[in-house]
Amino acid sequence: MFDALSTRLQSVFDKLGGHGRLTEDNIQAALREVRVALLEADVNFKVVRSFIERVKTKAVGQDVLTSLTPGHQVVKIVHDELVGLLGGSGHRLATAPHPPTVIMLMGLQGSGKTTTAAKLARMYAKQGQHPLLAAADIYRPAAIDQLKTLGAQLNVPVVGDASMKPLEICRKAREEAATRGLTPLILDTAGRLHIDEAMLDEVKAIKAEIKPHHVLLVVDAMTGQDAVTVAEKFNTAVGIDALVLTKMDGDARGGAALSVREVTGRPIAFVGVGEKTDALEPFHPDRLASRILGMGDVLSLVEKAQEAVDQKTAEEMVRKLRENAFTLEDFRQQLKQVRQMGPLDQVLGMIPGLGKMMKGGAAELAGEQKDLDRFDAIINSMTPAERTHPEVINGSRRQRIARGSGTSVSDVNRLLKQHAQLKKMMKQLKGMEGKLGRMKGLPGFPSLRG
Fold first, then answer.
1. By residue range, what is the domain housing residue 387?
2. Are residues 110 and 220 in the same domain?
3. How big is the CA angle at 157 (ends 244 and 159), to the nearest 5 degrees?
4. Which of 86, 164, 269, 434 lies 20 to 30 A from 28 at CA?
5. Residue 100 backbone zone (phi > 0: left; psi -120 to 50: alpha; other: beta)
């Protein structure tokens, strides 16, 4: 979502770093470009104006102008101000002292509210809690059925019936949660195609009687400044605690995320990064600011890896590599884990410095992503014996595998070559490890432990 903005800002700071010495004129020129970049990213113009003023005040200070690395100092100031603009520290939902913790979702139709309710339920269930969903959107066709279907997939109970009133559904859900000891209770309230008095009166009544501990507004980040306007109106009319920005994996310019906190005074709690129920992430302002400025996001990368990679499986893979017993079946498992971490460009963009190297390489990355898909299909088209002993794969077998996987023989050859190279490399590393082990006992050889 922030690719265009990230590219522009990195270009500005590269030019700034090229100056041996910074002056007020250098900084003013750079900030003019930053202002244009933010406005092109659809950031609210008032937010841009106050942001630039804050950066300018700090950037023309004596500490920066006389610094040995003034360019880096300016980048740090912009980074810190971006973090502040995005909300400072992340907003986390506290648990109520007396369960159930009630989370109320509001938003317009099409914002992804019902899917977000299911995503929240999955997140809490994964943490060991026992959520309950309330399907209180009785107006949108199939909204209740959609939530019940998602609930069944997640093994999460859902309360709601089209014959009941929304407030009645929420009351019943709260009673059931209290009786069965379920928490949190997630209320999926009704939306409309646009804000109207009837909708506002309904959510006000639910909020007044049910007294939710957290009121979250779900807005579509793809709608840009319209999302900020919607958030401002809901906050004024009903009052919200935080926001959930959906479709953050889209190709919009990202202005909503950079504007909504300052305009509404309310933080972003979660971001939706896909359609599946596992595509919801806590919002980390500092991590997003780092990614926008091309500094990577190692913490998020580690968290994704921990979710995708099973520790025992990883240890077993290492053992097989060391013993030169790494089969194509193992290779397929590795591909599966890489794919579970998300699109390749997003994963690589989290590695510091790599984001900048990737600029202009979108076609190459798309090719790499397709390779992962092809390799998975190729291995799936092999017999168990061929996956374990790829050396038996002769010409006719390669043709059969290519036909079965919808790929070419050259694709099959490339996969087999990469697998063979990996095994060869691990064999060489094992040989070097053995030599180093023998050398450690020689006089004067330094200890590897330091």
1. 310-439
2. yes
3. 80
4. 86
5. beta
Short-list 371, 374, 298, 303, CA closest to 340: 303
Quote the tokens at residue 444. Answer: 């004067």
Is there a single domain that holds both residue 287 and residue 415? Answer: no
Q: Which residues contact 143 (CB under 8 A, 6 or more apart)?
A: 114, 135, 137, 188, 190
Angle at the Cα of 249 (from 243 to 254), degrees rounded to 5? Answer: 65
Model pLDDT for residues 369-383, shown as the tens digit of each residue: 677 778 888 998 999
Q: What is the DSSP string of 103-117?
A: EEEE--TTSSHHHHH
Where does a domain end: 44, 60, 86?
Answer: 86
Residue 357 pLDDT grade (very low, low, confident, very high; cuts 50, 70, 90):
very low
SS3 of the chain: helix, strand, coil, percent, to 5: 60, 10, 30
Cα separation, 205 vs 222, whole angstroms: 29
Reported as a single tens digit per residue, the pLDDT across 388-434 is 888 899 999 999 999 999 999 999 998 888 888 777 776 666 665 55
Look at residues 295, 326, 349 and tell me which one is the last residue of a structural domain.
Answer: 295
Q: Do the domain assignments include residue 239?
A: yes
Q: Model confidence over 128-160: pLDDT tens digits?
A: 999 999 999 998 878 899 999 999 999 999 999
By the 8 A CB rule, do 74 and 14 touch?
A: no
pLDDT number for residue 58: 83
Confirm whether 91 is domain-assigned: no
Q: pTM for this structure? A: 0.67
The span from the CA of 42 to the CA of 54, in Å, is 19
